[in-house]
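#struct-help
A.M.: can someone run this one for me? Single chain, 351 residues.
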Amino acid sequence: MIRRRTFGKVCGIGAGSTAASAMAVPGVAAAAAPTPAGAAGAAPRPGAHTSFGPLKRVRAGLLDVGYAEAGPAHGPVVVCLHGWPYDIHSFVDVAPLLADRGYRVIVPYLRGHGTTRFLSARTVRNAQQSAVALDLVALLDALRIERAVLAGFDWGSRTADIVAALWPGRCKALVSVSGYLVTDLAANRSPLPPAAEYAWWYQYYFATERGRLALEDPDLRHDLTRLVWDTVSPTWDFDDATFERTAAAFHNPDYAAVVLHNYRWRLGLADGERRYDRWERLLADAPPIAVPTVTLDAERDPFTAAPGDGSGYRDHFTGPYAHRTLKGVGHNVPQEAPEEFARAVVDADRL
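D.P.: on it. Structure tokens below:
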């Protein structure tokens, strides 16, 4: 899920603030600012939507990508990226909010999730960070999208951060939950204080044979991922149906292999592929992100550096920037606080 070094900075910090300014999109009408929460015409409560329209598919790079789409076909594009153990339903309330404001919203299943499939049985079921980021670049190419606002959490934040850092011409603006999440493999070799390590139990579980077997077993996988949801979103009152809609995405035949590789690779327990070495070398230097960015910290997320003013990663963002902390919100930010997430997208687009 989140970068270990970020969670290691658990010490007292203050709350953040936000700012926004107008930003034009050539040939496209600017999206209207979101209605403040609680005002007349405000969006319905989280959970008001339960599904997208018919899903689409497109061949992109190594994958046949399944994705949801909402909003006008020629609107400014937002790509929303989920994390683990989640799926596109994290954005089921965010997408209509942004579509109503004129955005074309693309919500893809990441590799190993939902209806996304590898094109070849011979492709390594690799989930190192640059591989997943290149999936996003390939998706933009396949959909003929030159630039998009990228918005994500968990694996999605990391993926969006990497594209913004290495291919800034493809990223118009960025919304990144938990800030700068580029994985630092060297830092991951060092232990954190025990209290910090405690939240990463699933990561170490997946390093074992027992963890692999559990992730491959449908019943154990179901209960394991449900436990993660309960643990990292302690204030989110979701029902069983909400979880089950997402859990269906975990039946992808490559799910276990992709998830296991991601976490084992981060700990240096699984190799990456040489085809990605050049990108990993660049990422090892923690490249700055210069595109307009809004970062979000969730106050009740156990991986947020309490109480989350973004100071631990602020120096990585060198362009127009705003930060905010979401009170009472856990790890699955877009599904727990869709209005705030949608507002962050519009604000980032106008920085």
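A.M.: thanks! The mean pLDDT is 89.
D.P.: also worth noting: Residues 57 and 66 are 5 Å apart (CA to CA).
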